[in-house]
Amino acid sequence: MSFNKNNEQTNNDKEKAEFVIGRHPALETLKNNQNINKVFIQDQLKADVLLEIAAAAKKKKIIVNKVPKSKLDLLADNQNHQGVVVAVAAYKYATLDGLLEKVASTKQDPFFLILDGIEDPHNLGSIMRTADAVGVQGIIIPKRRAVQLTSTVAKTSTGAIEHVPVVRVTNLVQTVKQLKKKGIWIFGTDMEGNDFRKWNARGAVALIIGNEGKGISPLLKKECDEMLTIPMVGHVQSLNASVAASLLIYQGFTSRGN
Length: 258
Description:
Blueprint: H1 5-16, E1 18-21, H2 23-32, E2 36-42, H3 48-59, E3 63-67, H4 69-75, E4 84-88, H5 96-106, E5 111-116, H6 121-134, E6 138-142, H7 151-156, E7 166-169, H8 172-181, E8 185-195, E9 205-210, H9 218-221, E10 226-229, H10 241-255
């Protein structure tokens, strides 16, 4: 039986951390994340941005390892890493109470997203990117049967994962009931809802985005104060979850007077 020390070390690295992949996400992580373990940069690449990443890491006294492309391929699960991978401690989730207290301290009306069973990490990352762009204060996801914060989510979010708090809860229905007691209006999405272009999202609101295939669960629908729909006149009567979320989020953003 052969023994490969390099592969063993790579596996150990993968067990200890999550990974941020790509040049822009790496820079954003170095600016905002305090829990970075190591930075891996492909040897023999001389791009200016990689030199900038290495300099930023060394300034924070973070270990920078120059490694062959093959190791980065393994760490990144063969995704396009652009010559850099940042190993970070597992992503930390916010608490619901902490999120509510933080928003209350800003004296702004809450604008939250609730994701009911989003399964594709690229959808979650894209939704986080849009949420950050319009100032959504937090995202709530379920602990089970949904994608969690991963390296793929981090890369797709292009750094938004460092700015948008994510709360992970056991029961979305109970969480929504709790939010309603706090005076937050709950809006959902459905084929039979009201035209989203007329949605007035002023005040304290939370928007529920459903699963890519099944939509919002029936029990959660019952807790919604209003359902919204995106009118479509073409042959395709559905949109990608992150695209639909972006349209709805920006309507909410616009109607709030931003």
